[in-house]
Amino acid sequence: MFGGTALLIAGCLSRALADKTSASKLRELEQKAHGRLGAYVLDPVRGTAFGWRENEHFTHASSFKMSLAAMLLAKADAGQIDLDEILHWTKDDMLPVSPLTKANLDKGLSVRDLGRATLVTSDNTAANVLMRRFGGPSQLTAFWRSIGDTVSRLDRYEPDLNDTPPGTDLDTTTPAAMAATTAAFVHGNVLSAGSRAMLRAWMTDVKTGRDRIRSSFPVDWVSGDKTGTGIGKTKHTYVDLAFGGPAGRGPLIVTAYFEPIRPAKPMDKNAVAVLAAVGHIVAESLSRS
């Protein structure tokens, strides 16, 4: 009995030290990257977590679209909406980065297809069309509250939501809050089994995150993500919300936000590389467990 207890305690201490080491590596990454990095990693199998600036606020940018898609699936599970409903929009509604809605301007698309588009291609027009149909940004905030997320908020539509005014928390979350929310979608009972599988499949198909967190995961990992890139007047925010892990193991949940000190347009490759480096730290942390 004593030997088993000692081994258990030793294992717990080893995991705690490993997580402390990983958190230190996130801090070191921020120092080298010259910006503000916020990240949080949840491991549901070990029941552990580590992070850096995990309780500080960061702009969602397009990463809110993961939660928007989850909200639609949850409402469909509850019989409140019909995913086959066809929605329409006009030329005046069109925004940049809207490949699917641009291609279907004349005929419209189902709620299901628009929800997938918000994730897989980060279609901005699709996100606005869905929010206008189902109650606006405040409804997404209400959805977060209903699942226990007391931090995340959405206040505006695309593209305004990408730039949080100084001195406010408009359209923000924290890495820790969004990691818990992502875990609720990927692992929890917020969604039915079928809807949970659909959301994970959509996140796996995401095209915009192949050079961010997931790029540093081992090739045999099952993974998915949702990115965000907020180009504001005074700061730029690069975001990735990911899950990943070996097949047959509950995936890790990773949220990462980076604001470079010197913003670059149109896309800061160094900032994107910081998110990829977070993925490397995460993969390394699992290899040590």
From TrEMBL:
InterPro entries: Beta-lactam/transpept-like, Beta-lactam_cat, Beta-lactam_class-A. GO terms for biological process: beta-lactam antibiotic catabolic process; response to antibiotic. NCBIfam families: bla_class_A. It comes from Allorhizobium taibaishanense. Pfam families: Beta-lactamase2 (PF13354). The lineage of its organism: Bacteria, Pseudomonadati, Pseudomonadota, Alphaproteobacteria, Hyphomicrobiales. This is beta-lactamase. Residues 38-236 form the Beta-lactamase class A catalytic domain. It catalyses: a beta-lactam + H2O = a substituted beta-amino acid. It comes from the Bacteria. Belongs to the class-A beta-lactamase family. Its EC number is 3.5.2.6. One of its GO terms (molecular function) is beta-lactamase activity.
